[in-house]
Design brief:
Length: 192
């Protein structure tokens, strides 16, 4: 797994890249992951930034860990606090795509960056992200991984769409491509 400094570098580089990937997908205007569409919808309704809503949702999801007896690690807490900050910073820095090709570049780039970031921060071995920990807790209650993941993702995607978050072809691309891309990156950056 590596030394503590290398694990910390992997964790924080992964979280920074994850925030960039979120920003790329949201900036594309073509749709993003279910959780990010949910945060976007909440941001539209509250007037707060998307990053702030990512932090709030992450903290609220961690409260659901309590009855599931999940234990957070440094990576969990860092995920809650930093991904939203990195996403807001990247949203502020990224130029708006003014052509469909750039929008698709943002979408595809976002998927690749999120997949790579996921392998980095999970591979640091410092705790699951809040949403993944919720899924793990539901699996421990007896749901299959597939059903737990589907129920969570479908619920937040529907809520995000109803709140005004952008759900579109980019969402579909994310759903179909992020798993295979993450698997590809584990060849070069093993998870354990």
């Amino acid at each position: 797994m590596g030394s503590l400094p290398s694990r910390l570098a992997r964790l924080y580089c992964g979280l920074a890249l994850y925030g960039l990937g979120v920003a790329l997908q949201i900036s594309s205007g073509l749709g993003s992951s279910p959780w990010d569409a949910f945060a976007q919808g909440l941001a539209l309704r509250t007037g707060l930034t998307i990053g702030t809503m990512i932090i709030v949702v992450g903290a609220l999801v961690m409260l659901l860990w309590i009855p599931l007896r999940q234990k957070p690690g440094l990576g969990t807490i860092s995920n809650v606090l930093l991904v939203g900050l990195f996403a807001d910073a990247a949203l502020w820095l990224l130029p708006a795509p003014h052509h469909w090709s750039l929008s698709w570049g943002y979408t595809l780039g976002g998927v690749v960056v999120i997949a790579f970031a996921t392998v980095l921060y999970i591979g640091a071995g410092m705790g699951a992200g809040p949403r993944d920990g919720l899924m793990i807790g539901l699996v421990r209650l007896g749901l299959s991984v597939r059903l737990a993941r589907f129920l969570l993702e479908a619920s937040v995607l529907t809520a995000g769409w109803l709140l005004g978050g952008v759900v579109g072809l980019g969402t579909l691309v994310f759903a179909l491509a992020v798993g295979p891309m993450t698997q590809l990156f584990t060849r070069w950056f093993p998870l354990n």
